[in-house]
Amino acid sequence: MEKLVIGRIDKIDLPEYGLTNIEAKIDTGANRSAIHCSKIHQIQENGVDKIVFHIPLDSSHGTTKFYSTDFFKKGVRSSSGHLEERYIINTVVILFGTKIKTTFSLSDRSEMKFPVLLGRKLLRSRFIVDVDKKYLSYNAKMM
Question: Strands 116-118 and 38-45, how do they pair?
C-alpha cells in the first residue's frame, strides 16, 4: 500500500460522533492519538459500562456530551513524562476520504493549541509527514 503525504496540521472527521472538520496536529513524537475532553467518567446503564465525556465544539456553544461503550483504560505517558491512567476509545477517523479504525486517549488538552493530536499508531504504514504542508486531507475533501 502506497503511503499518503499528510501535513503537520489537518482537519479530521469523527463520524461515530457526528463531528466534522476538527483541527488536528500531526505528531510523530506521540505514540497514541488524543482528543481534548472534559468531565470524563465511567457509568453503568442497564448493566452496560459506558464512558461519558464532553468535547468543546467551539467557544460559543460550550461542550457536547458523548458516550462510548467501546473503551478501555491504560497507563499513558504525557508529554511531560508523567504516567497517568486514561480512558481510550475505539472509533473511526476519516482522512483523505478513508475510514480508519483507531483509538484516541481522552485527556484535558485545554492548554494545547489543537484539540486533537494524531500519533504514530494511526500514522504508521499509512502516511508520510511533510511538515511544510497543511490541510492536505481537508483540501482534498473540499474539491
Answer: unpaired
